[in-house]
Design brief:
It is globular and about 50 Å long. About 40% of the residues lie in helices and about 15% in strands. By secondary structure, it is of the alpha/beta class.
Length: about 200
């Protein structure tokens, strides 16, 4: 029934973040923080929170391990519901782009292959890696993205060209805002798409 309903709606062009929306780094962040001598609770792992809980040099080291080290970088699972959500977006004809902040594309593409998302949902024609938050906005504008989902309020603030901003707040740690719609699950994301 949900597929039929989604097939009938006018479809926005979607922008999707990778880390924290599709790939789940929660356990890696907790483990690495512990390795450096810090206890981080699950609800403290979102990037816009954890970066304020740890010393800057420790957070930079953890980021390097998560995003650039093959041993750690290839280990995270998918966010719950992401695979089924991407399948539904694909089946119902949504145009979507992956726009992620990464220093290089090699490791994230290999990770996407390992979790079965490349080239099934993402490939060279709909995947972009950019250097900073402002570049996400530029790429979203260039691609005509009308709705973007990210797990960081600080990123959504920079997406000035995107009319509909959606915050993936799995642990319910961020405040409500007129600047974005807050959700906790992929199922909620798919429901929101019906009203866009």
């Amino acid at each position: 029934m949900i597929i039929k309903t989604m097939n009938q709606i006018k479809k926005p062009t979607l922008g999707l973040d990778l880390d924290g929306v599709i790939i789940d780094h929660t356990e890696n962040k907790k483990k690495l923080a512990k390795d450096f001598g810090f206890e981080i609770a699950t609800n403290e792992t979102p990037t816009d929170i954890i970066k304020h809980k740890l010393p800057k040099d420790v957070w930079r080291k953890i980021q390097t391990l998560i995003y650039d080290d093959p041993v750690v970088g290839f280990s995270p699972p998918l966010v719950k519901g992401a695979a089924a959500g991407l399948e539904l977006l694909s089946e119902t004809g949504f145009k979507f782009f992956l726009i992620s902040r990464r220093k290089s594309e090699g490791l994230p593409i290999e990770l996407l292959k390992r979790v079965g998302l490349w080239p099934r949902y993402f490939n060279k024609s709909n995947t972009y890696f950019v250097k900073d938050k402002e570049a996400k906005n530029e790429k979203a504008r260039e691609l005509g993205v009308s709705a973007y989902i990210d797990d960081q309020p600080s990123v959504l603030e920079k997406l000035l060209s995107v009319p509909k901003k959606i915050l993936f707040d799995e642990y319910g740690v961020f405040p409500e805002s007129k600047n974005y719609t807050k959700i906790k699950t992929w199922a909620e994301f798919l429901e929101i798409l019906k009203s866009l």
